[in-house]
Amino acid sequence: MADRTFEVRRLPGMAAIAITCFVILYAPIVTLVVYSFNAGSSVALWEGVSLRWYQAAWENIAVQEAAIRSLVVAACAAGIGTVLATLAALGTTRTGPFPGRMTIYTLINQPLMVPEIVTAVALLIFFAMIKVATGYTGLAYLIAAHAAFCVPFAYLPIRARLEGMDLSLERAAADLYATPFATFRHITLPLMAPGIVAGAMLAFVISLDDVVITEFVKSAGQDTLPTYMLGQLRRAISPEVNAISTALLALTVLLLTAFFFLNRKRN
């Protein structure tokens, strides 16, 4: 009897379509990486291989300050967002059914569904009121804004990890008269640690790459690396931007690779 199992790979032309899609997706990125090693000053004319623009970016004081500010904001926002996301995941997965659970899911994931520009304008108005009232214009606004949209990105892998965990160990600890805190410290927390780390890394990458909300919320002199690059592109296109973008891409790929390894299914 003929095998009638449907497989996408057997469709005619599927391989060519897949290859074309990958080329369209990754050709601009490959071009960016290649031209970051261009020896010339033109972004479109290849003049040989050189690390000239990496050295220029490394010695640029403005780039150094923006990079340090980006890392500080991303680390603080990812830390705050991950703690809040962990508490939210525990509250929505380790309790019995209760009215309004779907509403809570929706509210936590709201930043993923609302256009980023809307969130940016809302944060701009909210923080502007606080700035007028307090006179404070420091980096805390940027960290708070990034932490707000990092929560759902950290929440999703942590919640998935909790839902995939076997409850028998926690029930066994309760049967042996362990306190809820002891059960959480010695059983729940170690088992959910990979989800927490993965959520923190994902939140860090999202914060590190953000432009729209940062551009609306930041005060003068608080450029992060993405907003600094956007400012440079408005003045003149320099191959130095290619080198910075490639370094940022390498860091992002490294963190996302670690994220996928932590979230891979284990037998």
What characteristics describe this protein?
MetI-like, 75% helix, globular, MetI-like_sf, transmembrane, 12 helices, cell inner membrane, mainly alpha
Structure description:
This protein has 12 helices and no strands. The protein is globular, with a radius of gyration of 23 Å. It has a single domain (59-265), classed as MetI-like (MetI-like fold). The model has no long low-confidence stretch (mean pLDDT 85). Helix content is 75%, strand content 0%. It is an all-alpha fold.
Number of helices: 12
CATH architecture descriptor text: Orthogonal Bundle
* Fraction of residues in helix: over 70%
CATH class: Mainly Alpha
Q: Approximately what portion of the residues adopt beta-strand conformation? A: under 5%
User: Which residues form runs of ≥5 with pLDDT under 50?
Assistant: none
CATH level-4 homologous superfamily: MetI-like
Structural class: mainly alpha
CATH topology: MetI-like fold
Spell out the helices and strands N to C.
Answer: HHHHHHHHHHHH
- Terminus-to-terminus distance: 35 Å
Task: Please give the domain count.
Answer: 1
Largest β-sheet summary: none
- How many beta-strand segments? 0
The radius of gyration computed from the alpha-carbon positions, rounded to a whole number of angstroms, is: 23 Å
In one word, what is the shape? Answer: globular
Q: What does the average pLDDT come to?
A: 85
Subcellular location: Cell inner membrane; Cell membrane
Main location: membrane
Transmembrane segments: 12-37, 67-91, 112-133, 139-158, 187-208, 243-262
Membrane topology: Multi-pass membrane protein
